[in-house]
User: Fold this.
Amino acid sequence: MKIGIIAFSGRNNMPYLKYYEDIIKNEKVDYECVFWDRFTNGKTEKINNEYILHIKCLPGGHKTGKIIPMLKYKYIVEKIIQKEQYTHLIILTTLPGVLINKVLLKQFKNKYILDIRDYTYEKYTFYKNIVDKLVDNSFFTAISSKGFLRFLNDNEKIISCHNISNTDEIKAAYDNFRNKKEITIGFLGNIRYFEENRKLIDALANNPKYKLAYVGRPNVDCDLEGYCKSKNITNAVFKGEFKNEDKPKLYKEIDLINAVYGNNSLEVTTLLPNRLYEGLLLKKPVIATNDTFLGDVVKVNKVGLCLNLDDRNIDLKIEEYILTLDFDEFSLNCEKMLREIKKEQKYFCEKIREFLKL
Assistant:
């Protein structure tokens, strides 16, 4: 057995990959990863058991500009699969699965895992039909949000997984920040959702009670830093890309986790991001958006605050939440939700082990 893990971005964007790798290593199975560096052009390189494709295709921007890079990606990935003679595959997100669907359906029927982490082009019938076939012919398909069932067909092969880190470094570090002179609302990850974050920034612009921290690489269509400079907004700070192992240190400086998204498409209304789980693990409240699956989860489990971003009193809503937050009750809510998540993760890991015994 030789497994190929096919990714659609760099390792740093996929903390959940560790679940697969830990189990594969523990079972002493041979495997390789194929990553895509989407920020530089260059020759494909192989370092130990990792292929890295260097094909520039920046996140955000116009989708037609991504066609040629994606076709290059497809060609190289298929070449690697044939060269390395993988017997089983793990496909991370639907886009690489759709791009190499003929190879999967012809050579790897019931010998691949499809791992779905977001909504992409399922609104297009041809794309949705391919995804449905890929789910049908997978060993199992993992989804990171039950919100995805809004665009996926019901299928017995679909199981839940979660964008939760399983590293020992992520530990609770919450404290009662109510009386701090300055409360930090932090966004960690690829910086996107310009319009939603602009509204949040405008609502708290130059308010001495709050600092808005954005840590990560911005999408090309999300120049929040430029916006703040043009408006002379000084309480928003921007830092560059970070590594996953830096998260615990970075989160020590954050009081509330910024997870605001729009609610105008399935792309943003169905997902559950890493930040939700990081909030649960670190005991830090999450700020979400109304009319999203994330918002529903936050409200039902009482692990944060949901905002209407068109509300003129966003600052007052945040202040009221902070003043009335029962930190002990909040901590218990986080623990309760984590227990349910860990049950589902245990089953997810059991299915991976079954896959390795094929």
Summary: Residues 327-355 form the longest helix (29 residues).
